[in-house]
Amino acid sequence: MIEATETEVLLKEQAGAVDLTTGSIWGNIWHMSWPMLLVMFFNFLVGLTDIYVAGFLGPEIQAVVGFVGQLYFFIIIVANAVSIGTVALVSRAVGAGRVDEALSVARQSLLFGVVCAVALTGGGLAFQDEIISLAGFSGSVRQVAVDFFVIFVFALAPNYIVIISNAIFRAGGEVKLTLQAMFLVSLINIALNFVLVFGLYSFHGFGYRGIALSTAAAMTAGTFICFILFRHSRWKNIFSGMRHVSVELVRRIFFLSWPAALIQISWNAGTLVLYNILGRLQEGSITAMASLTNGLRIEAIIYLPAFALHMAASVLTGQNLGAGEPGRAEKTGWKISLSGVAFVSLMALPVFIWAEAISSPVAKDPNVLNETARYLRITMLSEPFMAMSSILAGCLMGAGDTKGAMLVIVAALWIIRLPLAYILAVPAGYGAPGVWTAMVVSMVFQGIAMIVRFRHGRWKDIRP
């Protein structure tokens, strides 16, 4: 293991960071996982609140919230991709004891992310009509979608800062800083959802626009919260030298990030294609689209432990490889993935059994309720494969093998899921259940393929 200098050890002690390259593997997994599980739970509550509030405004608003939400995730893919590259580089540097290098990467990641956010904001505003037309909305529903999208676009820059800042905290093993930031952001978002939509006392609210405005306000507040946390952590010097751009570091971040960006582009574009396929079901299209929106938000609670462990696995793999411990990194990967499969399977069982009761809080319309319950019962069958795929993908990305994870996920999506969904839903005439079935089949393939990629072990030799 590479020894840290006295100054670097002192910085670790001041930050209260835990050495993730020694000691109990299960202890390190727990240290990284439980705060991230809470963070994912907070994100889930925000998404569920959006759908819950939209449910009082009608199925059309729910459909718009789901579609524009996917558009928004599509636009922030660069931030998510940069955060993955940041974790791979920063975690390796921290694991090797190179704190100055970790600080430099973190600084360049923030600069790169802000520049990308500004460029995407301009592009989103310039092509808003063309982007919204992808859903095929018409009349007043189209205008609602435009209003949502424009507000979300103006929130891009603060959202990028929050995403990349939390990646920096996480890569250094300081997951409690991420927990503090996202708890406050989520609390603000949920509270404003009700206040800005329905009003309070003499304030009458903004109606459906309040859902988007609450997200924009929460992310703006989150930017200031992250800056404060930077000032009180090992990253307190991150803002010094911001004018200097390191072409080499930006290049390394870019080459790690573009496969992750392609994963996000493919996944979100694929979800939009699913909405488009459901939109071809004539009189059942709105019910099917609203059911997909509801189902994805409810299903997100099953994703919570998997995504929390995905993020933990990425940092643990990166730090152990940086410390020269590839065997420990592999052992950690298998342990964390198998624990995720067990936990997710236990969560999926009650959702399968009580699908209607679980769907009823967000699905007010009887037809939407029935279809949402059917969606959940079908998709629960693939949850163990989802957990395995997600967590092992986190290991590969933390190791810098973002291309390997990309090949598996993109192939499962575009070669299996989308063609099969269209065939089963439209020509075969199975409608929405055909789409749900295709989602299951593709996830099973994805999980098996990710196991093969991780077991091959090529990721141990990658030098990001």
Characterise the protein shown here.
The chain is mostly helical and 464 residues long. It folds into two domains: 42-262, no CATH class; 279-464, no CATH class. The chain has 18 helices and no strands. α3 packs parallel to α7. The longest helix is centred in the middle third of the chain and has 38 residues, at 285-322. The chain is globular and about 60 Å long. It starts with 5 loop residues before the first helix and ends in an 8-residue tail after the last helix. Residues 1-16 have low confidence and may be disordered.
List keywords for this structure.
464 residues, mainly alpha
H/E topology pattern:
HHHHHHHHHHHHHHHHHH
Number of helices: 18
> What is the molecular shape?
globular
Mean pLDDT: 86
- Rg, rounded, reads 22 Å
Oligomer: single chain
Number of strands: 0
Largest sheet: none
Please, how many domains? 2
Describe the structure concisely.
With 464 residues, the protein is mostly helical. 80% of the residues lie in helices and 0% in strands.
